[in-house]
TrEMBL record:
<keyword id="KW-0408">Iron</keyword>
<keyword id="KW-0004">4Fe-4S</keyword>
<feature type="binding site">
    <location>
        <begin position="26"/>
        <end position="33"/>
    </location>
    <ligand>
        <name>ATP</name>
    </ligand>
</feature>
<comment type="subunit">
    <text>Homodimer and homotetramer. Predominantly homodimeric.</text>
</comment>
<keyword id="KW-0479">Metal-binding</keyword>
<dbReference type="GO" id="GO:0046872">
    <property type="term" value="F:metal ion binding"/>
</dbReference>
<keyword id="KW-0963">Cytoplasm</keyword>
<comment type="similarity">
    <text>Belongs to the Mrp/NBP35 ATP-binding proteins family. NUBP1/NBP35 subfamily.</text>
</comment>
<dbReference type="GO" id="GO:0051539">
    <property type="term" value="F:4 iron, 4 sulfur cluster binding"/>
</dbReference>
<keyword id="KW-0411">Iron-sulfur</keyword>
<dbReference type="GO" id="GO:0016226">
    <property type="term" value="P:iron-sulfur cluster assembly"/>
</dbReference>
<dbReference type="GO" id="GO:0005524">
    <property type="term" value="F:ATP binding"/>
</dbReference>
<dbReference type="GO" id="GO:0140663">
    <property type="term" value="F:ATP-dependent FeS chaperone activity"/>
</dbReference>
<keyword id="KW-0067">ATP-binding</keyword>
<dbReference type="GO" id="GO:0005829">
    <property type="term" value="C:cytosol"/>
</dbReference>
<comment type="function">
    <text>Component of the cytosolic iron-sulfur (Fe-S) protein assembly (CIA) machinery. Required for maturation of extramitochondrial Fe-S proteins. Functions as Fe-S scaffold, mediating the de novo assembly of an Fe-S cluster and its transfer to target apoproteins. Essential for embryo development.</text>
</comment>
<keyword id="KW-0547">Nucleotide-binding</keyword>
Length: 265
């Protein structure tokens, strides 16, 4: 039996991508897509060539967070063309393929895996410094599919986004162990919605982090802790409007926190 032709085609596509980063979370709603979007904005602002691939097939929020709602994908003889925010920031999401944003994607595993393969195989990114993959929450079929397709060794690593509470951290531990099992390096953990700054100099805890939060979990599991991002209405606004928080002068709380995280990655 020869090599899988799909995997060969994916390897060829990925040959023009320097770094591949997965963004993962144990649970939904912790800010994984928000972080992916702001990471893409931040890298693009540094003149890197960036691709953002949204494989959260059942809840694609990336088009909206990049200000690209209602856009469509075009096909050329090179493959599917990403939708561009700027010439150095391209985005691909199933959200661009749904006739209506309220449309539900109710697909079983094999079909989802088929689409992930197709995204990796058929999207024409060209030369990229970074491909950021916004994965669905949890450790499902799709995750195995992504890792298999990208070949564990070809991925630089995963960033895991969590909130400070135990219920979220329990799932993050599973995510970390999944990464270990499949051979994907954990680049680090971001603790999002860490606290509320209001007034902006006062940091108040929102969730119970008496268990030590993500810092303790990272210590326990021997993985890097990247930093905390406070709950910030301005960050939520940036995500709603599909803009970069770094370009918003009112985003005085979360933008510096995110900047610090991204700089030390
Ligand atoms: P996930 O991708 O983990 O499901 P999202 O990135 O979609 O989560 O975030 C869920 C919601 O929380 C979004 O409306 C987003 O704008 C908001 N949000 C995420 N992080 C923050 C934050 N630090 N401050 C304020 N709102 C946030």
């Amino acid at each position: 039996k020869g090599p899988d032709p799909d995997l060969v085609a994916i390897a060829e596509r990925m040959a023009t991508v320097k770094h591949k980063i997965l963004v993962l979370s144990g649970k939904g709603g912790v800010g994984k897509s928000t972080f992916s979007a702001q990471l893409a904005f931040a890298l693009a602002a540094r003149d890197f060539q960036v691709g953002l691939l949204d494989v959260d097939i059942c809840g694609p929020s990336i088009p909206k967070m990049l200000g690209l709602e209602g856009q469509e994908i075009h096909q050329s003889n090179l493959g599917w063309s990403p939708v561009y925010v700027e010439s150095n920031l391209g985005v691909m999401s199933i959200g661009f393929m749904l006739p209506h944003p309220d449309e539900a994607v109710i697909w079983r595993g094999p079909r989802k895996n088929g689409l992930i393969k197709q995204f990796l195989k058929d999207v024409y990114w060209g030369e990229l410094d970074f491909l950021i993959v916004d994965a669905p929450p949890g450790t499902s079929d799709e995750h195995i599919s992504i890792v298999q397709c990208l070949d564990a060794t070809g991925v630089d690593g995963a960033i895991i986004v969590t909130t400070p509470q135990q219920v979220s951290l329990i799932d993050v531990r599973k995510e970390v162990n999944f990464c270990k099992k499949v051979g994907v390096k954990v680049l680090g953990v971001v603790e999002n919605m860490s606290g509320l700054c209001q007034p902006i100099t006062d940091f108040n805890e929102v969730f119970d982090s008496s268990g030590g939060g993500a810092v303790k979990m990272c210590n326990d599991m021997g993985i890097p802790f990247l930093g905390k991002v406070p709950l910030d209405p301005q960050l939520c606004k940036a995500a709603e409007e599909g803009t970069s928080c770094f370009a918003n002068k009112d985003c005085v709380v979360s933008a510096p926190a995110l900047k610090k995280i991204i700089e030390q990655m």
